[in-house]
Amino acid sequence: MKVTRALQPFLPLCQRLLPDMRTLPGILNLSSFPTLPNLPGLPGLPGLPSRLAGLSLTLLKATALDLAILAGHLLLYPSGIAQERRATARPALPRVAGAEDPALLPTKAPLPVVLLHGFIDNRSVFVLLRRSLAQHGRHRVESLNYSPLTCDIRTAAELLGRHIEEICERTGSSQVDVVGHSLGGLIARYYVQRLGGDGRVRTLVTLGTPHSGTRVAPLANAHPIVRQMRPGSALIEELSRPAPGCRTQFVSFWSDLDHLMDPLETACVDHPDLLVQNVRVTGIGHLALPVHPAVATGIRQALDTARTGASAGARTGGRAGTRTGTQTDGLTVA
């Protein structure tokens, strides 16, 4: 069976999930599958047929889900082209004189959440995530549309910074949480690391973001932003520079079936100066990350954990758990 050009984009993904395939260069050119049952006896290839079958089924499910999400998103896309209307500031609840019991005081509202979409997309991609956040008490959720004609991640990061300052001024909040999908996560990270945004962003959640650059779609290099997302680009190198004292907590959700990330681990944050939690998502692709309810639950938990940590830090006179390092977790969807 010969591999067609249509399957070539998935070869790096298959080689990553089945590293044994690299030891047998001709395995993808076998003339027929009947020879596969004999492969378990070959050194270094235990149970390969069943693994191939499982991988094929998983890829099929993830691809079908991504296609269904893409179809639905195309229908919603026109609704997200315009910038959303800004919410009016809510007046603060009056404090009851003499009320010393903490149970009688108004509960502190969660921080505003800013959603930032990916390349050639808009805020409509977050319809389901916004609903999930609102259903669990996060009503101050806003999206930022950056222009599809934007040619520089740095310029988009400056726009994000102005948007966050406006939100803080309007809501009276000193910080926000940010969720960025794909390119949106890279824009937000640049704002945090290089433009002093760590003073405003408490938690940055990224979904399928090429933190170390991605090699997919080489023909797309005509677009300046795509060139900035390549491994070794000036912008990627800039993000690898030291960032001592960065106060933002990073949570990166990455999928082992994300065909837009090459290599797959590029969606993980790997920086010695940052407080990072990388969460591997198994069973879905790139487009499902901002849509799937299991990922939405993980995002809410990440924001709630950061909120609890910040409260503990306030009680102890500092930021609770302040340290650098990387924590790795997993989330199985299918």
UniProtKB/TrEMBL annotation:
> SUPFAM superfamilies given for it?
alpha/beta-Hydrolases
Tell me the superkingdom of the source: Bacteria
TM spans (from-to):
none
Q: Which Pfam families match?
A: Abhydrolase_1
Domain (AB hydrolase-1) ranges: 112-215
Positions of the region Disordered? 309-334
Keywords assigned by UniProt?
Hydrolase
| Protein name (Swiss-Prot/TrEMBL) | Alpha/beta fold hydrolase
According to its UniProt entry, this protein's organism is Streptomyces asoensis
